Amino acid sequence: LDTGRLAAFAVCAALILATGELMGLPLAGLGFWYGLSRGSFRFGAGIAAVGIGWTFVCLALIVPAFRGDESPFYQRFESVGGSPRGVLTTAFTDPGAIVAALATGADLVYLVALAAPLAGAFLLAPALAAVALPQLLVNGLSDWSTTTDPRHHYVAGAIPFLVAGAVLGLARVPKARRTFCAAAILVASAIFAFAAGPIRGAPGATPTGFQSRLPLPHVEALRAAVALVPEGAPVSATNRAGAQLSARRYVYSVPTVGRSQWLVLDTWNTWMPQSETRAEGPHPELLRAFLDRIEASPLWRQVFERDGVLVFRRVAPR
């Protein structure tokens, strides 16, 4: 690699790593693939070391430093050890538990759903496709059903390498058959997009684990409420509204207020994240108590209410 390509690669690697604490694992796999496919073992090993090092630093240092404890996502792996070390221990002491976690019906359907739109073409470039394995293993080992639902974001760490594997796999098909195979993949992708995509009446259009169908007046109320909050202003919101307000430095999940100058509350949406005193899930009584406290506080003034959606603005210094 020349200097320019090396710099471009470093920027791409940094962007990949910035998307999550586990993204160092596919980067490590990419390093091993590069070393084997290009014969540059030293450079490939360096890429792998950076990836593994990033994930280790995130899990062992960054997450505990900001959270004060280990990652809250470890609870999703209780059946196979409950932590990276626990999963490794289980792999040696009870490998059957690992196999059982990876061989459920949902896992098999998940793999078919990822392979079918590409007609399995990535199998013609197995080394590159294998870079997706760390993310697929993490998803399969999780006790949460949403991680093996291809409509959720958990596929993001695997899809690029399956697509890239399909591209390189097509390049290995004899030229006389390449156009036919490429057309077959496009047709398969189109069929699955219409059959399982977010199209009215299709199976994929059904709400996922964190979604629900809302009447149009409520959706419009949420949009109007979100539009009231100035760009960049610190805000605390219930989960559904918070998804539209998160691109700012300070954003909190109700009932945490923090530095917030604005509050956006959807009384239909009582889901709250995990804390030291509660489990993740719906907490209607906690939302009601929070709303009562805000309405009684002289620090907050209500500026919007429609269809169960309320907006408050801070009117006094903290």
Write up what this structure looks like.
The chain has 318 residues and is α/β, with parallel strands linked by helices. 52% of the residues lie in helices and 9% in strands. It is built from 13 helices and seven strands. Strands 2-1-3-7-6 form a five-stranded mixed β-sheet, with helices on both faces. A two-stranded antiparallel sheet has the order 4-5. The mean pLDDT is 89.
Sequence-ordered SSE layout with sheet pairings:
Elements: H1 3-17, H2 24-38, H3 41-67, H4 84-93, H5 95-102, H6 105-115, H7 126-129, H8 133-141, H9 159-171, H10 175-196, H11 216-228, E1 235-237, H12 239-242, E2 251-253, E3 262-266, E4 271-272, E5 281-282, H13 284-296, E6 300-306, E7 309-314
Parallel strand pairs: 1-2, 1-3
Antiparallel strand pairs: 3-7, 4-5, 6-7
Helix pairs in contact: 2-3, 4-5
Strand runs, count = 7
The total of helices stands at: 13
Strand share of the residues? 5-15%
Query: What does the oligomeric state look like here?
Result: single chain
Mean pLDDT: 89
Q: Ends: how far apart? A: 55 Å
Q: Could you tell me the radius of gyration in angstroms?
A: 23 Å
- Helical proportion? 40-55%
How are the strands of the largest sheet arranged?
2-1-3-7-6
Molecular shape: globular
Which spans have pLDDT < 50 for at least 5 consecutive residues?
none
- Helix and strand content put the structural class at alpha/beta
What is the N-to-C order of secondary-structure elements (H for helix, E for strand)? HHHHHHHHHHHEHEEEEHEE
Strand count, sense and barrel status of the largest sheet are: 5 strands, mixed
